[in-house]
């Protein structure tokens, strides 16, 4: 596409230069000046640290055909006549419009399902992907773990990619023959306009509890970001909303009733709800009531929160036209999600349970501890930490929850990032009452090993916070680290004793 044609679709361009490059072919879009090569259009995004537009000269020196930047960046680094530099007021909108136009609006060609909420997005999107695949509908999945579809998988850097990468991935997914796209939509993505240009046939809201208060000013601001997914700008079809969540209730009240299906674990006035519930150590069974009829089901996912995830996913696929009987018949075979309530088992007759889970917020840690209590006959030993350079205020809350709900709390490092690991441990310990004596071990590998070796037959060791992650971020370095591998090693050592 020629630069001139591309820019014609952007609303906010302030100034178009007279430059031969306006008729040049654009091969790719880049938001990182260091990644620019010949044929690229550099989009200089204002960020929290710097304004990318300040680097237009280096982008052009690396071969970029042109740069599009904010008027502020242009003022600081005035364009020279030899360079093709375009200015635009709203760079967020501009970037998303450029990306969507360049890739020919794939977010409007795929039938998109967007899932937002503090916890459960990855689980719900996996359930929806599974149901659609069982109905033989070609589906792309995008989220925390990976972008994948039949014959393709790529590890994800973000839960929701930035606009340029997002539109490119959606276009590749559409070109590969997918009809559906199931996406986790993070509050960061909504606040930063990463999904501008996408239209959703279904929007799911799972819940809102504390997280990310380093990025959002407060819970209202966090809620406002999540609620954006349900605005007419994005949501064309139906909203599937958790009516057991207080923010979910507010969202339902703010939308036209005919656009919403609510779900609840126990409220029969909701559109999707349950009766005859039986919570078992290895799953849940009951009767599922839906706008398309009722059906008996058995789910292999443990705990009430996973039942909520199931209701959300069933609501989404029923709206997309799947048959309720088919959906119910495949639930028992759902293979689960990596790093979510994942058992580490090296022997069938292992004397302790070891569970890896991605609980990294107060609410998810509480849910995890309550759900696992049901099938751990002995003591519960919870190994956990908190991420550095992220919401500090959740740390003492997680400390308190672990102290109250586990029998032994082992406080260790998660991803310290550039923070002093000891400071993170101290923040967690602040929430632990004096009467409780946690084990404190900064080195996560040692903490996992100690917990597994100390456990008595019947005990459960919960390794929380890192789930599927196969790395640990120490400072700015990313090292290989996988809770499951360390757990397996420690289990082998335990068996030899
Ligand atoms: C808060 C946030 O989302 N920050 C993202 C943001 O960083 P920033 O605003 O500080 O960027 P910046 O460093 O000021 O740079 C601004 C722009 O200038 C460009 N630049 C910069 C320097 C240079 O020399 N040349 C250049 O072109 C950068 O590429 C960037 O486009 O833009 C960066 C570049 O695209 C991202 O890497 C960074 O993600 C950070 C690392 C991050 O961790 N984000 C997490 C919190 C995140 O987005 N998480 C959500 C939610 C997960 C959940 O729900 O749990 C997710 O969707 O993954
Ligand atoms: N519906 C839910 N309500 C509360 N907690 C949940 C729910 N679903 C999952 N959890 C807990 O939260 C953890 C993370 O779940 P999941 O990965 O599905 O959420 P997510 O919203 O994708 O998280 P992230 O924003 O970090 O990507 C799980 O490991 C589990 O402990
Ligand atoms: N998507 C979450 C991941 C947290 C995972 C945890 N292991 C950590 O590093 O804090 C976030 O960006 O806050
Ligand atoms: Mg996720």
Largest sheet: 8 strands, mixed
CATH fold title of the largest domain: UDP-N-acetylmuramoyl-L-alanine:D-glutamate ligase
Number of strands: 24
Mean pLDDT comes to: 96
What's the alpha carbon Rg, rounded to whole Å? Answer: 24 Å
- Cα-to-Cα separation, first versus last residue: 66 Å
Bound molecules: ligand UAG, adenosine-5'-triphosphate, 2,6-diaminopimelic acid, magnesium ion
CATH superfamily of the largest domain: Mur-like, catalytic domain
**Structural class from helices and strands?**
alpha/beta
What does this structure look like?
The chain is α/β, with parallel strands linked by helices and about 500 residues long. The protein folds into three domains: about 5-100, 3-Layer(aba) Sandwich (Udp-n-acetylmuramoylalanyl-d-glutamate--2,6- Diaminopimelate Ligase, Chain: A, domain 1), CATH 3.40.1390.10; about 105-335, Mur-like, catalytic domain (UDP-N-acetylmuramoyl-L-alanine:D-glutamate ligase), CATH 3.40.1190; about 340-495, Protein-Tyrosine Phosphatase, Chain A, CATH 3.90.190. It contains 17 helices and 24 strands. Strands 9-8-7-10-6-11-12-13 form an eight-stranded mixed beta sheet, sandwiched between helices. A six-stranded mixed beta sheet has the order 17-18-22-19-20-21, with helices on both faces. The chain has a five-stranded mixed beta sheet with strand order 1-5-4-3-2. Strand 23 and strand 24 form a beta hairpin. The longest helix is centred in the middle third of the chain and has 16 residues, at about 305-320. The mean pLDDT is about 95. Bound molecules: ligand UAG, adenosine-5'-triphosphate, 2,6-diaminopimelic acid and magnesium ion. Ligand UAG binds next to helix 8.
């Amino acid at each position: 596409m020629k630069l001139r044609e591309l820019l014609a679709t952007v609303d906010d361009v302030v100034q178009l230069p007279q430059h031969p490059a306006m008729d040049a072919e654009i091969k790719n879009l880049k938001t990182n000046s260091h990644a620019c090569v010949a044929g690229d259009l550099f989009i200089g995004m204002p960020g929290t640290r710097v304004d990318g537009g300040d680097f237009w000269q280096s982008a052009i020196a690396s071969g970029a055909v042109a740069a599009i930047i904010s008027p502020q960046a242009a003022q600081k680094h005035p364009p020279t006549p030899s360079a093709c530099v375009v200015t635009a007021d709203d760079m967020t909108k501009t970037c998303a419009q450029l990306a969507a136009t360049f890739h020919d609006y794939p977010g409007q060609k795929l039938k998109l399902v967007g899932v937002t909420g503090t916890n459960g997005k990855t689980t719900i999107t996996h359930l929806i992907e599974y149901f659609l695949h069982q109905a033989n509908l070609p589906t792309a999945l995008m989220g925390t773990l990976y972008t994948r579809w039949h014959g393709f998988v790529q590890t994800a850097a973000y839960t929701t990619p930035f606009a340029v990468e997002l539109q490119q991935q959606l276009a590749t997914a559409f070109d590969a023959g997918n009809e559906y796209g199931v996406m986790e939509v993070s509050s960061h993505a909504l606040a930063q306009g990463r999904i501008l240009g996408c239209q959703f046939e279904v929007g799911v809201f799972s819940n809102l509890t504390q997280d990310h208060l380093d990025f959002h000013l407060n819970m209202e601001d966090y809620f406002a970001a999540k609620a954006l997914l349900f605005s007419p700008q994005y949501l064309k079809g139906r909203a599937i909303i958790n009516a057991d969540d207080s923010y979910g209730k507010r969202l339902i009240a703010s939308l036209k009733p005919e656009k919403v299906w609510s779900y609840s674990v126990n409220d029969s006035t909701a559109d999707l709800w349950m009766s005859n519930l039986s919570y078992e150590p290895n799953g849940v069974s009951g009767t599922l009531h839906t706008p398309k009829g009722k059906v008996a089901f058995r789910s292999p996912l443990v705990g009430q929160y996973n039942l909520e995830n199931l209701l959300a996913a069933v609501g989404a696929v029923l709206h997309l036209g799947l048959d309720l009987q088919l959906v119910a018949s495949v639930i028992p075979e759902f293979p689960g999600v990596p790093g979510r309530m994942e058992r580490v088992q090296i022997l069938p007759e292992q004397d302790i349970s070891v569970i890896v889970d991605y609980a990294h917020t107060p609410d998810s840690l509480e849910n995890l501890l309550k759900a696992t209590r049901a099938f751990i006959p002995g003591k519960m030993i919870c190994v956990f930490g908190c991420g550095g350079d992220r919401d500090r205020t959740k740390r003492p809350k997680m400390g308190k929850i672990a102290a109250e709900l586990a029998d032994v709390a082992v406080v260790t490092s998660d991803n310290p990032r550039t923070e002093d690991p000891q400071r993170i441990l101290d923040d967690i310990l602040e929430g632990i009452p004096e009467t409780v004596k946690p084990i404190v071990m900064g080195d996560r590998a040692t903490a996992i090993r100690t917990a597994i070796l100390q456990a008595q037959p019947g005990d459960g060791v919960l390794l929380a916070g890192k789930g599927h992650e196969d790395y640990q971020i120490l400072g700015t370095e990313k090292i290989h680290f996988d809770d499951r591998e360390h757990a397996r090693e420690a289990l082998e050592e335990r068996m030899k004793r």
